Amino acid sequence: MKSIKLPNGTWYYDPAQQLGIKGGFGIVYAGFSSEFGDLAIKRISVDPRNVAHRELRIADELKGKDFEHVIQFFDAGLDDETGSNYIVMVRAEKSLQQELNAGRTFTESETVELMLQVTKGLLEVPELVHRDLKPGNVLFHQGKWKVADFGIAKFVEESTSLQTLNYFLTPQYAAPEQWEYQRPTHAVDVYALGCIGYALLTGQPPFSGTDEDIKQQHLHSEPPTLQSVSPRLRLLLSMMLRKIPETRPSLERVKNLLEQLQESNGQVLPAWFSALSGVAASVADQSAKEKARKRTEQDEQHHRDEVAHEAMKILAMIIDHLFEKIATFAPNAHISPAHTKEKDPSAYPDRTVKLGTAKMTVNFSRFAKVPKDAFSQSKWNIYAGAIIKVEQETNRPYIWGANLWYTDLGKNVDFRWWEVTYMTQPLILNHQKFEPYAVDDLSLADQAASPIIGNIQLGANPKLVDDEAIEDFCDRWANILAKAATGELRYPLRLPLD
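The structure corresponding to this sequence follows.
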């Protein structure tokens, strides 16, 4: 046994007894202490002489704490005699990588449960981004899957550079922005967990080949279509593997969606739900094609254009599904074509559907790109928008409209597509003829969303449009079109609507 001295005491490990294969950051050995018994001791590969901060320090958020889904650390630091950094942690029974190496694949329910446990582990330390999540860092201990190696990637990054860090990461699980040396956020962990989901279901991560092959696939290619996987799980994995980090779901949302999948396991779902989930999964698959570029202050506008383009792709596919659903139940409806021959790939054609004397219009062009500071009063960060409205062309004309915004609602959370309607402030004498309505002036939309009382306000609470909310959106607007087609569209009984 070899002894090492770290800040919290002396520890022993057997250099001849290696636990698992060598990883990007180091080798794990069987360790021991009289106080804690069997341990795992990891020797970090980075030479302290070549880094700015010689000693590895585990973040205070991890020291001595017993988490439910994070491997417990006992000590970490530099051993002066060997000149190497070490981490001392509990010894797990096995790693997820060992299970995959043995040829095991997981059922959908097992995959959802395992991914949920890993997500909970990441959420237990919300202040830290793991940066190197992979099956080798998912360990089975005391009947639960737990996350290991929190803080090591951050140490390497702070001590050297983002470029150096990439030499240590596992290519199959590195997010596109990590290949472009961008500062990592929790989105890189979401992406890595999506890759792990693929590995659980198929035995392999989504991309393979040489390191350069894998890099190019992460940056440019869609993951392969998962066969015999439920549309809802396929949709979630596709959402997690979107190229642009801002379009991926947050860890909290991933947790909620996994819990919903877990709750619905074994339930018999109606055929329309399965069909809709399949469409939603296809939408997510196709929206993941766009390359994410290096973003700095100098190219921020370019980055915003990228996000707006990706967002409009998602919205265009949602509207395609809405119009397809209308066509299914009203085959005599006249629907405009979905494709464009515009040279600008970010431009989508305005869409219309006519049914009798009713017409639905979706205007993509008015707000295809929204300037960064357009919503300065409300602090809503909006990348793109559209207008949807239904016109009742009878002896009692009426127009019902709303704006669709790709935004975080000023809450610094997920960027999603939201439906937002507007109304005139009740104390104003001169109201618009038709309410609720859409606005074509960004300053009015900003005013309505701000805490300042003005002439315009929100006509309802914002409603989600994308991903798991697609069906509600489609049903809502199909119902509005149906009312207009029968001449029943009129001023609502109350405003705001909810």
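The two ends are 69 Å apart (CA to CA).
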